[in-house]
């Protein structure tokens, strides 16, 4: 493999370890192991540092316009191709929980692609999106600009559970 291929593989591994260790931290804390939780949290942040540095070495972060265009492409692939196939396979295997997660993610990725498209148009026009609160559904990953609905339109949890992104 080339150095570039190695860096992309390392980025994928570091990114996955970051998320895995963050979840392990929560589990350790929930089970009453606060120091182990901190250890996992520190390792999670370390893996994030590695992933960020690898993106830099790969010169994989472009201008905001380039990043938005690539993000629209990636999110669109996920909701039009990747997740529909995953939902179909999970349905065939009667993997109910995975099917639900895939379906929620697919719907959230469609929202993300739409928001990135809107942001890309604003950046191309020389501006930014209008100043508005940005909220995240902590269950399905739906993103809402502006006022939160009474219930998440993707997963149905109460809007009061949405996280305000600062």
TrEMBL record:
Gene3D superfamilies: 1.20.1260.10, 2.20.28.10
Pfam families per record: Rubrerythrin (PF02915), RUBY_RBDX (PF21349)
Xref: SUPFAM superfamilies: Ferritin-like (SSF47240), Rubredoxin-like (SSF57802)
Record's keyword annotation contains Cytoplasm: no
InterPro entries in alphabetical order: Ferritin-like, Ferritin-like_diiron, Ferritin-like_SF, Rbr2/Nigerythrin, Rr_diiron-bd_dom, Rubredoxin-like_dom, RUBY_RBDX
MF annotations from Gene Ontology: iron ion binding; oxidoreductase activity
Domain Rubredoxin-like: 132-165
Record's keyword terms, sorted: Electron transport, Transport
Residue ranges of every copy of the Ferritin-like diiron domain listed in the record: 1-127
KW Transcription regulation (keyword) present: no
Record-given protein name: Rubrerythrin family protein
Organism whose genome encodes this protein: Methanogenium marinum
């Amino acid at each position: 493999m080339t150095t570039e291929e190695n860096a992309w593989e390392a980025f994928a591994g570091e990114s996955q370890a970051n998320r895995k260790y963050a979840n392990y931290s929560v589990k350790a804390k929930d089970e009453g192991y606060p120091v182990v939780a901190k250890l996992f949290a520190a390792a999670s942040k370390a893996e994030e540092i590695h992933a960020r540095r690898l993106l830099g070495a790969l010169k994989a972060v472009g201008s905001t316009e380039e990043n938005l265009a690539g993000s629209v492409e990636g999110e669109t692939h996920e909701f039009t191709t990747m997740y529909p196939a995953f939902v179909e396979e999970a349905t065939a295997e009667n993997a109910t929980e995975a099917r639900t997660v895939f379906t929620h993610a697919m719907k959230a990725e469609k929202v993300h692609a739409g928001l990135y498209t809107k942001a890309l148009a604003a950046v191309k026009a020389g501006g930014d999106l209008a100043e508005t609160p940005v909220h995240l559904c902590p269950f399905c990953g739906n993103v809402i600009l502006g006022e939160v609905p009474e219930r998440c339109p993707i997963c149905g949890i109460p809007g009061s559970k949405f996280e305000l992104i600062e």
